[in-house]
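Hey,
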Amino acid sequence: MLDFLLTSDAIMALLTLTFLEIILGIDNIVFISIAANKLPEHQRNKATNIGLLLAMVQRIILLFFVSFLVGLSTPFYNLETSWFELHISWQAIILFAGGLFLIYKSTSEIREKVTYPEHDKDEIKGKKIKSLSNAIVQILIIDFIFSIDSILTAVGMTNGLHPNHNYTLVLMIIAVVISIGIMIGFANPIRKFIDTNPSIQILGLAFLILIGFMLITEAAHLSNTEFFGNKVGSIPKGYLYFAIAFSLFIEVLNYRINKKKKS
């Protein structure tokens, strides 16, 4: 397993996934903070830390569940015609549904952040929280909602990296633990940076659209889908890593240019 974790593909997947997990976790941090701020001051840090730790536990549990489903690669339904062929497995269904969900969720989030960025925050602020246990329940619900796209992103970034699903599961868990650890240690600086540079979060959501599309093509590929004798191929992960790295490089240049203009 150590040999796999030290490969260039695994390291790139880990770095990219950790970055995306942090970007996806920004809203989670904001909503947890809003919920925690309704408590007495001496309980706020405790509620925030508990909330983030619960987010990590929830995501690891979901990773085990989703990884189990993705491992069910034996087709249970076959469709063959003169021009079309398809072999459906639970693996393909999970990847296809996950890809559609990521595309829908990402486009919805981008639209909402552009047109009404305070919508979700106002909704959380409107909920009454009277005790620490009540806050933790609210945080658990928030964590679960934000865990779904996080888990699907992890699956999309690591699926196919190694034939043994346990290896990729370990890689996903490491990325989740690192990202939550960073968020616990640097929650406020990260939140302030994203607030002053909202394009980073929009960029992260745009990456999810790419990952969603990749999951759909991966589902078609694993289903041995054929149109008029032409098989659907999988998209090499290297293309995705390059697109993300190049976009981040442009964003860093843009940030430095804007910083110089302000100074």
